[in-house]
Structure prediction request, 514 residues.
Amino acid sequence: MLANLTLSLSELLGKDYLSAVVSAQAVLTGATEAELWAIADHQVEFYPPAHAARVARLAKLTGQRLCQGMSHELAGAPTKSFAAAQRSAMAPLACLGCTRIGEDGRAYFTAKSEHYHIPLGHKFPGYELLTLASRLGIVNATHNNTRGFITRKLEQELVRVANGLAPGDKAGLAAVLTSSDERILNRVINLETGSLAVESALKMLLARFYRLDRSYPEPLYAGRTPVFLVMADFAGNCEANYHGTTILTQVLRGMWPEFKEKLAQDGLYQVVPVAINDFDDFAAKVAEFDVGSRKIAGFFHELVLMNYGGIRLDDSYIRRCHALAGEHDIPTVVDEIQSCMWSPELFLFKEYGLSPDFVSVGKGFPGGEYPASKIITNAKMDTLNQFGALVTNGQEELASLAYLVTMAFAEHNRAHSATVGKYYQQSARTLAADFPAVLEKIEGDGLLTSFVFRDSAATKTFVRFMNERCYDVSAQTYKVNCPPVALTKLPLVVTESMIDQLIGVMREGLRQCI
Prediction:
């Protein structure tokens, strides 16, 4: 059961900081400090019972037309690929909790959390603190050289969570931040999108082979070809991974094939796929490519392959891979853009017991309020100058505050996240057992659950049915050699009754596939 949490800005950010903010805003606006302290000390309920009850009632109305909706569709000015994919009837008019009213006036259930953006649902009440912060004069616009207090506090909070420290453990955090251990995650770069966050890790790895600029000394592995290991698809190609939309990260998943081949032929940059959950293959690739003129530059992977069947990497497999990588000075990059915040630990890599060199952060942490992704790394990988990886608006204060609000509520509700995650997985497996001719198995982790079908035609039939009933479920049938799956990613604020309702509609959909 979700536990409410009540905080003020002064409690979340500290009296010392708010005292300075109040003083500054009073000078700027002429407001009295008493008026401003009333805002700073205003208690906000993050998930009041009335809100929870309304969210539950709205979920039961999924599929119903709740208002008139739009009478005419506006096309916009998209490129042809975006135009082909557009579904304006489902586009948001207004949203609350797990419910989105589309332009057709119907209530949609956000069974994919609006593509991973809203772990706490739409219009989460705790984000009222962002409005209060704005009233106090706290702004977004700043510069890389003037990262605000909230962003600096967030950096330390991300380091705390990444190192498994309890909230308020100041001594533990201080020890981590000043540790001489080069492998401890204690540095953060603030970026804007997941693509740029992961690309910054890629650039830090390339900096061990090539100079960032002419002022740099010769890199450790200069003259050798950097080889990047990524998750293979079932045909042995690179299409199972997804690490962003910049050119070199697209090359990681086999895009720009002629460019990819030319880079490898010229010894500049090579991508090698490793078989999913096959340690022997990983070890063989290390033996083959980490010698002579080639050096494995890094191992990039997600923990749940949400762009390839929702496959979950086995605990023992990935731990053995990381251990072998450590023996060969192969940095590890855990891409948590899609999985972060959905684990009770906030980072799924903590459940695996991993100690990676990089962890990407994004999507879920700012709760859909702002685009704001990060890369967390260690001293050993801290190789770029400031212009090597930066985004001018990457350190927005209100975006950082959204992170802190989301994190506070998620940590307060670890038990709920674990409970509903297990409940959904168990419910999905029971459903699969009832339809063995249609469903092969259930994949994923917790609320990141995929339904693996025996054929793509049934997948499409099922997803069409779910979409017609206004449940956001997508079919992953477009990739060659990808298992035909239906993907879901429920918000953390779902309840067992919402899951029961969803499973009931899924049961109807599966009957259409027989």
In short: The mean pLDDT is 97. The chain has 19 helices and 18 strands. The longest strand covers residues 294-301.
